[in-house]
Amino acid sequence: MSERLSLQSLPAGMKPGVDPRELTVGIVHLGLGAFHRAHQAVFTERAAAITGETRWGISGVSQRSASVRDQLAPQDSLYSVLTRGLDSPAIQVIASIREVLTAPEDPDAVVARIADPGVSVVTLTVTEKGYRAVTSGGLDLSDPEIQQDLAGRPPRTVVGQLAAGLVRRAETGAGPLTILSCDNLVANGPFLRRLMDDYAVAGQHKMTEQLELARFPASMVDRIVPATTEADRDEAARLLGVRDEALVVAEPFLQWVIEDDFAGARPAWEQAGAVLTDDVAPWEQAKLRMLNATHSMLAYLGGLRGYETIAEAVRDPELAELAGELLAYDVVPTLTPPEGLDLTAYGTSVLERFANPALKHRTAQVAMDGSVKLPVRLLGTVRDRLAAGAGPRFASLAVAGWMVYVATGKDANGRELPLDDPQATRLREAVAKAGPGAAGLVDALLSVDTVFDEQLAADQTFRALLIEGVTSLQRR
Fold first, then answer.
1. Is residue 2 part of a domain?
2. Which residue, 5, 129, 157, 302, has fewest beta-carbon neighbours within 10 Å?
3. Its pTM surpasses 0.70
């Protein structure tokens, strides 16, 4: 067993780009998963290394378990990013995360850090389900956790944490805050602002003035970050010379597009390669509808065929062809490309990135949380094509793949397909009540109004395409 990664044990040639002992906390990040550590934290470290600014250390908040805290604490909060491309792997030690808070253990500490006058930016990667929104886009005020936060307990939800932090900032004169969502949601900044407004109204909240001063810029993030394995940790130990229990793995590609709308100071992320723009929407739509939608399609269709990774699925000639047809015939006609982005070339690059054999991104991992991913990844494309009088055959096949994945629970080899979804109970109940045949399954799942709105569920063209897709998949 190698010695554990720490400031003292790290070989001289592997030192991070900034000295962590010089950094003070200026950013709070909610949702301290692998993606943040391989994306925003990397941009933040690069910006600090270029500019020499030391005020942008990150206080990372784990919303559920203490596992990330327990991994990082013995390592002086250092970790490494193992980049896997077609060439030899590369590794870099990152020091931008300066502390880890665990919300269930100490919710007051999270609020106190958001209210810290030294903090001017809060970023979020809490996944779609972490926002606790209803299908229409507002806050789910019936959610028991939201209700408890509104009742005054130390907050456990991200909306409750932000609200309590804003209230305390108002009390102490800490100044305005920029709250930057980095999740795969359409217009994620305005979306989060609406949730905060709903929370303020429901709680007759004292944060109204601070909410008016806050900014909620939209952003688009892109990097494939598969789950880390023990084999990855062993390889990292060989490259580093020390053991890193907090290792994350990523592809070489790295992109961040941010709306330039901040309430105060921020890191010089543009110097680290981020794009600052007045309009994120075209970039965001292209990524959600091209990369994320194709990812989901390959996860469901590939998972059903028994493929364990996305790379295996996209090397199946039939699935690769279907993914290409989804992009060409259903998605691209719905998009207005931002200046400088060739949609056809981008689509080709997406499939090439998915085929990277060094990234073992599991189909089961991508298939998680389908009930909240489908509306933002695929159903917008379906609606736009239907409105244009076209039949979205390939987007509908991807949705049909999700339906069969949910209903079958097994792949072509008889292995279990886990249903890891915040609405798993409701989905299982719908499947249990389904009528006979493909039409019965389609109608049962279309009735889940937290996934499909009334107009889309009633569209006969969409229903017919789903029945056709489910029938073909069940035959296989």
1. no
2. 129
3. yes
- pLDDT score at 1: 54
In tens, the pLDDT along 178-196 reads 999 999 888 999 999 999 9
Same-domain pairing of 360 and 409: yes
Residues 301 and 249 in one domain: no
Same domain assignment for residues 141 and 288: no
Q: What angle do CA 446, 449, 451 make, to 5 degrees?
A: 75
Model confidence over 293-332: pLDDT tens digits?
999 999 999 999 999 999 999 999 999 999 999 999 999 9
Domain with 381 in it? 281-475
In angstroms, the CA 76 to CA 42 distance is 17
Between strands 79-83 and 57-62, the pairing is: unpaired
Give the contacts of 50 (CB within 8 A, at least 6 positions apart). 268, 271, 272
* CATH for 419: 1.10.1040.10
Average of per-residue pLDDT values in the chain:
95
When divided into structural domains, the chain yields a total of: 2
- 65 and 188, same domain (yes or no): yes
The CA-atom distances, in angstroms, between 127 and each of 35, 66, 69, 143, 297 are: 10, 18, 19, 17, 18
Rounded to 5 degrees, what are φ and ψ at 13? -75, -5
Which residue, 277, 305, 335, sits at the end of a domain? 277
